[in-house]
Amino acid sequence: MRIVAGKYRGKKLWAPTGKDVRPTSERAREALFSILYSKIGGNYSAMNIADIYAGTGAFGFEALSRGFKSVTFVDIDTTAVRKNAKLFPA
User: Fold this and answer.
1) What dihedral angle (degrees, nearest 10) is formed by the CA atoms of 55, 59, 63, 69?
2) Helix (H, G, I), strand (E, B), or coil: what is residue 12?
3) Has residue 15 been placed in a domain?
4) For residue 6, what are the CA distances in angstroms to 20, 75, 76?
5) Is residue 90 part of a domain?
6) CB atoms within 10 A of CB 24
7) What digits encode the pLDDT tens for the residues 73-89?
8) Is residue 2 in a domain?
9) Angle of helix 58-65 relative to helix 26-40, nearest 10 degrees?
10) What pTM was estimated for this model as a whole?
């Protein structure tokens, strides 16, 4: 699993094995951001987004890579998203 586009394009994300976490696929994330782009354009620098049921945080990290101002990650178990957050500079 990797970041599809933006500043961190190609960066690999950590995902646990098993069925406890099912990361949003690269194809699904690309489709969601294409929809957002068609509705609001490509300047996300003033926008905040929430990654609900974050799991690995793939959707939220994709948003940060594409220039969103901030992301709020929400999940019961934040182990995977915290591990992936360490892969990105502060």
Assistant:
1) -30
2) strand
3) no
4) 28, 25, 28
5) no
6) 20
7) 999 989 999 999 999 87
8) no
9) 50
10) 0.90
